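Lab notebook page, bench 4
Experiment: in silico fold of construct C2
Operator: M.H.
Input chain length: 256 residues
Purpose: comparison with the prior construct
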Amino acid sequence: PSLDDVRLNLVEFLVNQGRSNEAVEIARDAMALKERDAELRDRLGMVFSRSDRQREAVQMYRSALELEPTSARAVRVLDLLMSDSPPRTVEAENLLSLPRITALIEEDGGLRLMRARVFHLQGRSDAALRESVESYRALRPIARDMLVWFNFIQTMIDDRTATLEFLDRFSAEPGTSEWARLFRGLLLISSEDTRAEGQRVLEQHAATTADSEVAFTAWRSLGTSAYEAERYSDAVAAWEKASERRPNDATVLNDM
């Protein structure tokens, strides 16, 4: 093993033994020997994060971010800051205000979502909505990217009623209505209490939308819902409609 590997293993051993102060000292020594090595700092951050030493992990990851700013590093630091108890939203907002990170935000919708999460945790709903909309507009209009975006929004808000209220406001923004209606149907269909309403929303939207990706996603989701309810003929019928929008799609063929 390399000397870096030996140091990393020692740091992890000390953390697991509850000797965190010693682990931090060795980590700092390792970084002092390689002042420009961002990857080493990433690896040290991973060691501390894996051992549930989040504050030390933030220090290591942030050091890597300062050396080589990338969206992935910024998201990693921000996620740790906001997952802390209580969330360290002031630090997160300060980080997002740094010129090098601001430049990354302009190119990365994922970082805009992280900023939306900061604003949401601070109770700044208008600012959270604005950043969410901007991140949405940066996406490719394909099902996979849109669903990843919506899953993030659901996790961020973490309340069905509040998410429905968010979607009402989101759908009023220019260029959002097609996907917003789909997201609403998906949220409704995910709960037993509102499943029938969600099915109606998705069926009507799938039958009338001119957006083939929206229609594909609606029919596939309807098929999955029917299958889970053991309505197998309905499931196949919905998946066949999805296949019409996207012939030879491997996921739908696998479903059927």
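Observations: Residues 129 and 169 are 8 Å apart (CA to CA). The chain is about 80% helix and 0% strand.
Next step: discuss at group meeting.
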